[in-house]
Amino acid sequence: MYENSGSGSSNGHGAAASAEQVKEHLSAAKGAAAEAIREASREAQTWSRSRFADLQDRIEAEPYRAAAWALGIGFVAGVLVTALGRRR
Asked: E-strand spans in the chain?
């Protein structure tokens, strides 16, 4: 590829220093990306726990309505699975 580009040095020390800078930059980028993923994961976990708690509260407040919804969803899912199974 490019040898001695931009360093003006013919002994290769400039390329080694440049490679070291690239390694440091990639390491810093890796750390930043890992931290961003950790933060997004924490936010998603907090959000999902909050939504789950809200759902639990709603189910406890109206258990019969929740059971009716579950039955209806189960029935529709069963009809869809049966229909797809008969196609093949």
From this structure: none
